[in-house]
Amino acid sequence: MTAASRRIGLVINPTAGKNTGARIGREAASLLAASGHDIVDLSAMDGAHAVERARAAIADRAVDCIVVAGGDGMVHLGVNLVAGTDMPLGIIAAGTGNDNARELGLAVRDAAKAVERITHGATRRIDAVRTVDPHGNDRWFVGVLAAGFDAVVNERANGWSWPKGQMRYNLAIARELGVFKPIPYVVEVDGTRHETKAMLVAIANGPAYGGGMKVVPEASYDDGLLDVLILHEVSIPTLMRVFPKVFKGEHVSHPAVEILRGRRVRLEATGIVSYADGERFEPLPMECEVVPGAVTVLT
């Protein structure tokens, strides 16, 4: 990519990062316009309408690239717009976690640096993970899919309207710790079937989720493989000791942790809704595959 003027389809999540998404997004829009780019504002009242507007702009060839401003949820939205195409994706990281942006080496909560990368930077092809929903539509994620205790906590927290913010998740963790039981899984990797009871299963294309949790520290965005982490059955006190180590990636040395690698993964479990890039994704069972180089990121 050169610094030539482009038509940038910009989608801003104003509530990202405790409402800093609007400020950083607007600042980035002004800087992009000052750099000579044409800004096509594709933001909307919610994500579904933003996706609709962006897909129409892409279909009409009204934009040359898509730029999202927000957290991992906005990266997820952008990936689902451009995956499998040559449309580049720019990321203005303005969320709370920003795991994918950080692990890709992008600027975090810095509009000027993000705009500089978008305007003058190179491009990088990264892998993305594709599944097909029950309606036959492709759905994609680029970071980590959670399908165990972490996903159960998310589902619990998202069912509450109060309290707001991190406290809601803290309460959800406390609630689940009292009732959580090891989950019977079937984990199939490239056709090899594994049956186990586990506390947590994660499919990783990137290394981190949840605001810096290095769940699979060796996962790579461009190796053409998925890393599947299984935390096999342990006691709740052991889970409480092991889980905090995820912030430094030190949990992987625990004997109950197993990491499998492959290109196609199928997960089966009862009553589990998976979360990918922090967004509610698909209920199990589900099958996904890595697609090498599926997304072009402005870096």
Quickly list its features.
15 strands; 29% helix; lipid metabolism; Rossmann fold; alpha+beta; 2 domains; globular; Tumour Suppressor Smad4; 8 helices; 15-stranded mixed β-sheet; 299 residues
Domains counted in the coordinates: how many?
A: 2
Radius of gyration: 19 Å
Residue stretches low in confidence (pLDDT < 50, at least 5 long) are none
**Elements, N to C (H/E):** EHEHEHEHHEEEHHEEEHEEEEE
Level-2 CATH architecture of the largest domain: Sandwich
Q: Given the structure, what is the number of helices?
A: 8
User: Describe the biggest sheet?
Assistant: 15 strands, mixed
Instruction: Name the shape in a single word.
Output: globular
**CA-to-CA gap between the ends?**
10 Å
Task: From the 3D structure, determine the CATH topology of the largest domain.
Answer: Tumour Suppressor Smad4
What is the percent of helical residues? Answer: 25-40%
DSSP summary, beta strand count? 15
Proportion of strand residues = 25-35%
Structural description of this entry:
This protein is an alpha+beta fold. It folds into two domains: 7-121, 3-Layer(aba) Sandwich (Rossmann fold); 144-292, Tumour Suppressor Smad4 (Sandwich), CATH 2.60.200.40. The chain is built from eight helices and 15 strands. The protein has helices spanning 16-34, 47-59, 72-82, 99-103, 111-120, 149-158, 166-177, 236-242, and strands at 7-12, 38-41, 65-70, 88-93, 123-132, 138-141, 144-146, 183-189, 192-204, 226-232, 257-262, 264-268, 273-276, 279-283, 286-298. Helix 1 (16-34) crosses helix 5 (111-120) and helix 6 (149-158) packs across helix 7 (166-177). It is globular. The termini are close together. InterPro entries: ATP-NAD_kinase_N, Diacylglycerol/lipid_kinase, Diacylglycerol_kinase_cat_dom, Lipid_Phosphate_FormReg, NAD/diacylglycerol_kinase_sf, YegS/DAGK_C. Its cofactor is Mg(2+).
